[in-house]
Design goal:
Length: about 450
């Protein structure tokens, strides 16, 4: 292509030389014509270069194989979307795509065990990102798509896909978190925790909330505490950033103790196991179950506020999570292009919306979130509002989840009659244990 451009310019230059002796007028006309021809040649060459750069040779992709891992309940959906993808990208008509059922919770472990045999494109939970990057199981998001991906999707989900400021995954959903389901014939005002408990007690109804690790942070993060872990390049936990043993930690713990003392309180977060309830803190995965129980009185809201022992009002917080779509690094640049194009397509606005309509997964795409269909989903609307008060769940040691269960047991048991001094000592012990998991 470049040789062709040079030959065009040389032809124009030779023409100008031959006409140089034909008088001043001819020279001026020739100079003008030459400039116009040169400009035209440059424009044509640029257009030719752009066309050649955009031109695709389907033969370069024929016979290539791409393995895709997604959750079992979206295998059929993904297969159909890949057929649509091949229609929009006809150069990939000769590519063999194989979709296998591997859930987001299992994908990371399988990839890390054997990256070579793992999927080329796969969905995973955001808290597995660091492990996957460390294992060299994720390619950076294609720079050609980066600006669009970042602007089109929820900022929290985009950040959840980053390590060190680099985006390693395509946002797919923003629907992993918890909020309040309630019976609106009983709970007429879901804005405060005290009000919800009082209304449930008056009606002889139960209020369900799990006080272990994932849900427990609703109180601690709500009062301003932090609990995160740093990891090294090998994925080892190197530092625990925690300040539970503090005045704000005491406020959070005392609120948990007060909630657990209510006659309406039941420990749990699974709607399928809950009975006689008018309020339950749960996730979108149980929406159908709750709706069946509450019927016309079904309602959803963000988590409530509570008034702490210090007299201040706090908004309940928590973790938020999402599903991301990753691309495995490839030695074959043509195959990498296929994988990037597919990941970009499967996380596009229209496919995220179609996935919501098919299996009710909450979109990460902002336009999809704003659609009438998604907004009409009360559970997703409540979760979206709650996300503003939460933090993305990162990596936590397995010991944290186990230790948090013992604290939850004490909240319901020994802590019911404990003094502030005793609770402070318990928080110091708890914090020391959490810190020890990173040594």
């Amino acid at each position: 292509m470049k040789k062709r451009l040079v030959s065009v310019l040389l032809t124009v230059a030779c023409g100008a030389t031959l006409l140089a002796g034909c008088g001043e007028k001819a020279t001026q006309e020739t100079t003008t014509d030459t400039a116009e021809q040169t400009e035209a040649a440059d424009t044509t060459a640029d257009q030719t270069e752009a066309t050649e750069e955009e031109a695709v040779d389907p033969a370069a992709y024929d016979g290539k194989e791409v393995k895709v891992w997604v959750a079992e309940n979206v295998v059929d959906f993904t297969n159909q979307q890949i057929e649509n993808f091949k229609t929009e990208y006809p150069q990939y008509a000769g590519v063999t795509f194989t979709v296998e059922p591997v859930g987001e919770g299992d994908a990371a472990g399988n990839m890390i065990t054997d990256v070579t045999s793992g999927a080329d494109v796969y969905g995973f939970a955001q808290d597995q990102l660091t492990r996957l990057v460390t294992a060299n199981a994720l390619e950076e998001v294609n720079p050609d798509f980066l600006a669009d991906v970042e602007s089109a999707n929820s900022a929290g989900v985009v950040e959840a896909g980053k390590v060190g400021g680099t985006l390693y995954a395509y946002p797919m959903t923003a629907d992993n978190g918890y909020f309040l389901y309630y019976d609106k014939s009983v709970v007429t005002d879901p804005s405060t925790l005290e009000g919800i408990v009082e209304q449930c007690e008056a009606a002889g109804k139960n209020f369900y909330m799990d006080l272990t690790g994932w849900y427990q942070v609703a109180f601690f993060f709500g009062t301003g505490c932090q609990l995160t872990y740093d990891t090294d390049d090998a994925g080892n936990f190197t530092k625990c950033n925690v300040d539970y043993a503090s005045d704000k930690g005491l406020v959070a713990l005392k609120e948990m103790v007060e909630l657990a003392s209510s006659s309406s309180f039941q420990a749990g977060s699974s709607a399928g196991d809950a009975v006689n309830y008018a309020a339950i803190i749960d996730g979108t995965w149980d929406a159908a179950t709750v709706k069946e129980v509450l019927g016309d009185n079904y309602a959803c809201a963000k988590l409530p506020t509570f008034t702490g022992s210090d007299g201040k009002e706090y908004q309940m917080s928590g973790f938020n999570g999402c599903k991301l779509l990753g691309v495995k690094p490839q030695e074959d640049e043509d195959k990498l292009q296929i994988c990037d194009d597919l990941a970009y397509y499967l996380t596009s606005e229209k496919v995220q919306l179609a996935r919501f309509e098919a299996v009710q997964w909450g979109p990460a795409n902002l336009n999809a979130q704003a659609s009438d269909a998604v907004q009409a989903n009360e559970a997703l609307a409540a979760l979206s509002e709650q996300f503003a008060y939460t933090i993305p769940q990162g990596n936590y040691p397995g010991d944290y989840w186990t230790r948090s269960e013992s604290l939850a047991g004490d909240v319901k048991g020994d802590f019911q009659k404990a003094s502030d001094e005793d609770l402070t000592k318990a928080l110091e012990t708890y914090q020391a244990d959490l810190e020890s998991y990173a040594k």
